[in-house]
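S1.2 Input.
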Amino acid sequence: MRLTVLGTSTPYPRPGNACSGYLLQSDREPGAHPTSVWIDAGTGTLAELQRHIHPADLDAIWISHRHADHTADLLVAYYALRFAERSPEHPIPLIGPEGLLERMSAFLGPSSVDELPRVFEMQEMSGWGERAIGSLQLEWGPVQHGVPAFGLAVGDGSTRFAYSGDSAPCVSLEELAEGAGTLLVEAGYDAGRAADDDAPAHHTPEDAGRTATAAGVPRLVLTHIAGTVTPADAVARASAHFSGETVAATPGDVLTL
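S1.3 Output.
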């Protein structure tokens, strides 16, 4: 598998860096297209996605939670898939938390209630679940973020990849990441921020290192890093609690999983 980083910015897009979004693709097989899944559709990621794939060629979209910096480009993706020059042959599976389509239709207007199902085949996540998409097996489970939120693990039969979405440290994320070769974790809190909240909603870099250690993964990729922390500092701080490879995601990166 390979993961293309579309954007990592939090909580709004910056010049040259869209909000959270990733393109996960299976290995190419002779004569076949790779299975392609858009993971999180943060602001600005649809434009970046099109550098690599036409939206109509997606096999699925997976959304970790309903916050705008992870979902906003679903609205313009609807326009791209419904009204542009090329539409998908079948509705694209959209796997996300409960109420996602209702929120989209509230923004897009009453006519979209009937039109959205022509573009997206909605599968709502309400707990642990799984689904096969092409050659990829997706698994998800609830994580701690103050709103319904989910982490993701994807396997292709030989490799496993895990993603935190937005989440504070929690046992369910560690369980999802077990057996993964790469764990992609947000680090949206600077040092001390988590301690100020009754219910933490993000990882600090230190938390990310501890989560990777608890999950037993060999590689940690930090993303969605707090604006007060440089990527280099985040990597150094996470590495103090994790002995494996640690890197920061950069827009445009293509990671071999």
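S1.4 Remarks. The mean pLDDT is 95.
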